[in-house]
């Protein structure tokens, strides 16, 4: 048995063959046997890394023996023999800081670990290591090798506390200013920028018990911005001395102590500015009865100037908003005096309170002003008489006296106890009021007005005076008039239509007269319509006074057709019209065909008939139109070839083929020139003109 071509164990490691022994004739001489052939491995494959570059990381300050990363290589040879047993080693390390051998690799597993202390990201942030993998158990003389690159990044830990660049900082701020940066604190941190180990956090630990300041961190520069969040008062504090401490968002690494430079002092000076006067009580509430006369002193509404240390200023008062113009204020002392009578029922008073606004201005540079609000609670007095409600109503002329009537009440602009309950009564004069009407009390605010028993009034509108008194001290009385419509009612107590009209002030006779007039008017309209219809019918059936044949008016008359003397009356009138195209002529069945060609020349201008022609001009107009049509080559029939292919049957006229000339000599055709432009071409052909 021989090998016919090279064997590759990595492609196929064994073969299973069956051998047969036969004679020359192909007969089996022995039983077949199985042959098992195993391919012996040779070291013909190098170790291969899955990646050419591997990335790993390790914290700075890690102790020796800290795991960093793992590398692995694969060898296609038999791993049960030395041909497939791979071993690893580090060829080089870049940079050699602090020593050339900061890492080692497990020769069998490929794990890289640290072997020396001293990893510092602030000095070396990344290492590059070349790793070699060799088979034959790492025998460099017989084994095959391959290399890969391992990049190890040293990750940052918070091993550098932030340090302020100065032990003291200073700034200044105008009083009453908020959201203003008054000082800028700078800090140094060697850790990785824009990471929690680098981001600074500032805190005020002393010097600001009332919380006037805060420190915000600039996200770009990491500086601390001291900001005013609550107004400061120069008269209260002229300066602030703050104690500030800075730290990182992340805690310091184990074993790292805070720096003494993490704390500093910040001195902030407060600048005095002209502050506006202020009203100690704002808004100020006072109570007064309405109706106090003009010139009444209400109160003194004075303001205070907060600039009491360095500035001695005068305050002047003025009115800012006085909706009803009821008040005035003294310019120097702020005394409020009325200029008109105070009215609680005014539209400018809301919930019994009248509100006005005043200004207080100092004489500083620049001048400052403050506003104050004065609220006057107006106590009600009985100064408004009650008004009767409703002002109009209706009542049935005959109904049950227990339910028939008008419920009345009153409206009073005053409030209790100057409003209800009300007293309703009828006046003593005229005497007919109490004789026909009566008022029954229902409640403190309501009463019922009705007709007296067995009193009948004609339908109509009656004005009933009613006296209404309120409960004030003393009470106010008002005489009001209610218009009551008395009308006949149906069973439901509602006014009937006739009753409503009667109640409007019309008597029975007037109502009957109106109805008769309406009936007469409708009859006249009906008669007029009938007369119009009848006249229209007569007009349609009436004959003309003259014979229609003699009527020469501009009417459209229908004339009888001429009738046929010939048998071929199956003619097509469309042949007399100019065809737009030849398609409809070609597609027609056999018959009379006419192919006219309209000359391409400008059309002639026909005389325009006046809108209202004179009777004597009609003949001239017709002759002018006929002459223009005869001289118009563009008017049909056109001077073109006409094709006739069907004459008709049974015509009484003889055939044109039977016509012949009886003259053998020359014939004079000059008369054709007198026949007009339609015969001009014939005149040119047969006339006596010179030939071209």
From TrEMBL:
Subcellular location field: Cell junction, Adherens junction; Cell membrane
Domain Cadherin residues, every copy: 1-49, 50-164, 165-279, 280-388, 387-498
Annotated transmembrane regions: 510-532
Principal localisation: other
Molecular function in Gene Ontology: beta-catenin binding; cadherin binding; calcium ion binding
InterPro entries recorded: Cadherin, Cadherin-like_dom, Cadherin-like_sf, Cadherin_CS, Cadherin_Y-type_LIR, Catenin-bd_sf
Membrane topology designation: Single-pass type I membrane protein
Keywords on record: Calcium, Cell adhesion, Cell junction, Cell membrane, Glycoprotein, Membrane, Metal-binding, Repeat, Transmembrane, Transmembrane helix
Record has Cell membrane as a keyword: yes
Entry keyword Transmembrane: yes
GO biological process: adherens junction organization; anatomical structure formation involved in morphogenesis; calcium-dependent cell-cell adhesion via plasma membrane cell adhesion molecules; cell migration; cell morphogenesis; cell-cell adhesion mediated by cadherin; cell-cell junction assembly; epithelial tube morphogenesis
GO terms under cellular component: adherens junction; catenin complex
UniProt protein name: Cadherin-4
Species whose genome carries this gene: Betta splendens (Siamese fighting fish)
Name of the encoding gene: LOC114858988
């Amino acid at each position: 048995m021989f090998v016919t071509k090279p064997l590759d164990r990595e492609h196929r490691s064994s073969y299973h063959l069956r051998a047969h022994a036969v004679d020359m004739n192909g007969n089996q001489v022995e039983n077949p046997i199985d042959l098992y052939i195993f391919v012996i491995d040779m070291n013909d494959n190098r170790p291969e890394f899955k990646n050419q570059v591997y990335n790993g990381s390790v914290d700075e300050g890690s102790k020796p023996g800290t795991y960093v990363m793992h590398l692995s290589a694969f060898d296609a040879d038999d791993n049960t023999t030395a041909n497939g047993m791979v071993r690893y080693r580090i060829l080089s390390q870049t940079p050699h800081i602090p020593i050339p051998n900061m890492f080692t690799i497990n020769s069998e597993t490929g794990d890289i670990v640290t072997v020396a202390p001293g990893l510092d990201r602030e000095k070396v942030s990344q290492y590059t290591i070349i790793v070699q993998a060799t088979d034959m158990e790492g025998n460099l003389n017989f084994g095959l090798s391959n290399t890969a690159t391992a990049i190890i990044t040293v990750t940052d830990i918070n091993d550098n506390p932030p340090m302020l660049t100065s032990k003291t900082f200073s700034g200044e701020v105008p009083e009453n200013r908020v959201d203003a940066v008054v000082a800028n604190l700078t800090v140094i941190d060697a850790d990785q920028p824009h990471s929690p180990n680098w981001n600074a956090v500032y805190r005020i630990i002393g010097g600001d018990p009332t919380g006037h300041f805060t420190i915000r961190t600039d996200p770009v520069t990491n500086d601390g911005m001291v900001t005013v969040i609550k107004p400061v008062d120069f008269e209260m504090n002229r300066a602030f001395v703050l104690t500030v401490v800075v730290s990182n968002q992340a805690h310091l690494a184990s074993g790292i102590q805070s720096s003494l430079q993490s704390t500093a002092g910040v001195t902030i000076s407060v600048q005095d500015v002209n502050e506006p006067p202020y009203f100690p009580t704002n808004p100020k509430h006072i109570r007064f009865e309405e109706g106090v006369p003009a010139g009444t002193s209400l109160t003194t509404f004075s303001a205070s100037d907060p600039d009491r240390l360095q500035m001695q200023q005068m305050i002047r008062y003025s009115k800012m908003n006085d909706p009803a113009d009821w008040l005035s204020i003294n310019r120097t002392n702020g005394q409020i005096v009325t200029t008109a009578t105070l009215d609680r029922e005014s539209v400018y008073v809301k919930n019994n309170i009248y509100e006005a606004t005043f200004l207080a201005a100092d004489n500083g540079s620049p001048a400052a002003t403050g506003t104050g609000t004065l609220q006057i609670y107006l106590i009600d007095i009985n100064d408004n008489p009650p008004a009767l409600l409703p002002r109009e109503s209706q009542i049935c002329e005959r109904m049950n006296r227990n339910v028939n009537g008008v419920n009345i009440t009153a409206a009073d602009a005053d409030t209790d106890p100057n409003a209800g309950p009300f007293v309703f009564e009828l006046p003593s004069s005229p005497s007919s009021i109490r004789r026909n009407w009566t008022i029954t009390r229902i409640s403190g605010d309501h009463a019922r007005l009705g007709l007296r028993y067995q009193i009948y009034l004609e339908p109509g509108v009656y004005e009933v005076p009613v006296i209404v008194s309120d409960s004030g001290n003393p009470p106010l009385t008002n005489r009001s008039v209610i218009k009551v419509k008395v009308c006949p009612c149906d069973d439901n107590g509602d006014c009937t239509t006739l009753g409503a009209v009667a109640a409007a002030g019309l008597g029975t006779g007037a109502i009957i007269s109106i109805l008769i007039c309406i009936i007469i008017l409708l009859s006249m309209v009906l008669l007029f319509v009938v007369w119009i219809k009848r006249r229209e019918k007569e007009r349609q059936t009436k004959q003309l006074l003259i014979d229609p044949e003699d009527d020469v008016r501009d009417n459209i008359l229908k004339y009888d057709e001429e009738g046929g003397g010939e048998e071929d009356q199956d003619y097509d009138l469309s042949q007399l019209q100019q065809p737009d195209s030849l398609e409809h002529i070609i597609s027609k069945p056999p018959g009379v065909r006419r192919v006219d060609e309209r000359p391409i020349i400008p059309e002639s201008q026909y005389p325009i008939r006046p809108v209202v022609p004179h009777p004597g001009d009609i003949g001239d107009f017709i002759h002018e139109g006929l002459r223009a049509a005869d001289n118009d080559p563009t008017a049909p029939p056109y001077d073109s070839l006409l094709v006739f292919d069907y004459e008709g049957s049974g015509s009484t006229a003889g055939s044109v083929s039977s016509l012949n000339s009886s003259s053998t000599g020359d014939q004079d055709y000059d008369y054709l020139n007198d026949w007009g432009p339609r015969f001009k071409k014939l005149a040119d052909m047969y006339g006596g003109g010179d030939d071209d």
